[in-house]
């Protein structure tokens, strides 16, 4: 398809996925005849994945996110569903990125049409395709309209309420207690409707504690904390910490190594899991193995943690990444970590490094067992001079 062209839909259920060389957040908005949503409930995205006749599906970082429209279930008064896309990394534009939307039959997955918007530049969000009703017939139109102010600009344009986020307060220093270590708990603020990228659930009411996983995926900034609690119950099952990066600029390979260091209640080092020791603490922590270049889609190295099987003596885990080849993180295109449900593969928490320092090691995130038995995850992003996990043990302990 070309911009402005349209096709009649031969299927009642259609799925629109948007693929790109970078990870995209895809969402859908249900619009009335005046081109506005009826309420914020008509904005469908990963924190609100379903609405009347419209659902969101995450690709989990290895496949494109998608919006499915069941035209037989779209409520009266809704005449258009727009599908939007924005880069997941904060501040990233579509310069050099060619997203392709594919419209598929929702039942057999056959391709009905594809569309790649031409000549993208400073846009940080796009209305890429719309599914619309015209004279009783549902059709798909290629749009490709860009916004320089991100997904929040699109949301505001179509009537979704967007609040400006306040700055997060700095973390408070932690003094090691004799019992399990408590992490810092800075207040977390986020807009009620999604910001440019990526979206974060709204902050808790005063006195209600840290954010949890009830509203879906949480995107952390440095020093922010999320409690691994869903529906009032702590996660006591397998989780995966995926760590990823892109190859170094100028085509050089870079050998980054992901590790996890286990600590006891006095910040005492229990053991380290890395490419040279793929299992620790009785197999409750397992490493996927070494990736020497960062090539390939999805996570480069994965560490599986069975929270329910961890010995009681393990009260803190610190996830680290080292540049074994000696190159500095300023030469790495980007690095991230994300926590996934080990059973379903659902992404729970994500932390992207938004800045880098000329060092060879970074403390990415920590998991701390609370007195109540639940676990908290805090984004760290602290750089250290160390090419191996051995050199990370002391600074990681000090950061607990």
Description of the structure:
This is TerD family protein. It comes from Streptomyces violaceus. With 400 residues, the protein is mainly beta. Helices cover 4% and strands 38% of the residues. It is built from two helices and 27 strands. It has helices at 150-157, 393-398, and strands at residues 6-8, 13-19, 24-31, 43-44, 50-51, 54-57, 66-70, 80-87, 100-105, 111-115, 125-134, 137-147, 218-220, 225-227, 229-230, 233-234, 238-245, 256-263, 269-273, 279-280, 285-287, 301-306, 316-323, 335-341, 347-352, 361-369, 375-384. A seven-stranded mixed β-sheet has the order 13-25-24-17-22-21-20, with no helix packed on it. A hairpin with a 5-residue loop joins strand 26 (361-369) and strand 27 (375-384). The longest helix has 8 residues, at 150-157. It is elongated, with a radius of gyration of 22 Å. The N and C termini lie far apart (53 Å). The model is unreliable at 164-209 and 292-297 (pLDDT under 50).
Compose a concise summary of this entry.
Residues 168-206 have a biased composition (Pro residues). The chain has 400 residues and is mostly beta strands. The chain has two helices and 27 strands.
